[in-house]
Structure formats: structure tokens, C-alpha cells
Design a protein that fits this description.
The chain is of the alpha+beta class. It has one domain (2-109): Ribosomal Protein S5, domain 2. The chain contains 3 helices and 4 strands. It has helices at residues 9-18, 52-69, 92-107, and strands spanning 20-23, 27-33, 40-44, 77-83. It has a 4-stranded mixed beta sheet, sandwiched between helices. It is globular, with a radius of gyration of 14 Å. The two termini are 20 Å apart. The mean pLDDT is 87.
Amino acid sequence: MKDRWIRKHWEFQIVYKEGIKQVGKRVILYVRCREAGPNRFGIAVTKKLGTSVVRNRIKRRIREVMRKNADAMGGGMDLVVVARRKILHASFDQIERDILALVQQRAFSSRPKNRCSGEGP
């Protein structure tokens, strides 16, 4: 699972520039299609959301959503999740529903440009 994470600044920048942005209540999801391979995930939590304890708790929750649902999301995508302020008071289930709804919205998009081939659910 370690190779499934986007960690470098330049990798995040590629996803931001080339990916499709989808806005949810608690998160913003950037999705970039790749040719093949497993999905890769990145998490961005700004210092505006709180102290390191708060930011790390948010990252742990998002990381667990990604780990738990990685197989159901299909493959061949880079996904970056950016936390918004409303995530501070959200439960794990609310965060999970929000992220999965954005991924499914992307998967079932009527515009072919917004779909990755071989994409899940």
C-alpha cells in the first residue's frame, strides 16, 4: 500500500493541473487518469484547519477511507483529497460518504472526458 501514495510536491501539482476537480461538502477531490496500475492517493490538509493534532486526525480518517475502499474505486487514477473546514465536525461515516459520492459521480459522469477507462463501481 506504501507505493499507492502521492507524496512529492511535483506529483500533487500534476494532479492539480491535469486532473478534474470535484467539490463536496467536506472535501475537494482531484482525479487524474493514468494509463494503468493501481490507484494512487494523496491527502492535503492546510494549516488553516488547526494544529498538527487536528490535521493528523483528519489525515488518518481520510487515509482509512482510502484504504477501506481502494479496491472498489477501480484503477488507473491519481486521486488527491483536499480537506475543507466542514470536515472538522464530521464523523467518519460522513467523510466516507462524501468521498465515495465524489468518486462515483466521476465514475458515472455522462461526459467521456471525465471518465477513466476501466473505472470501478
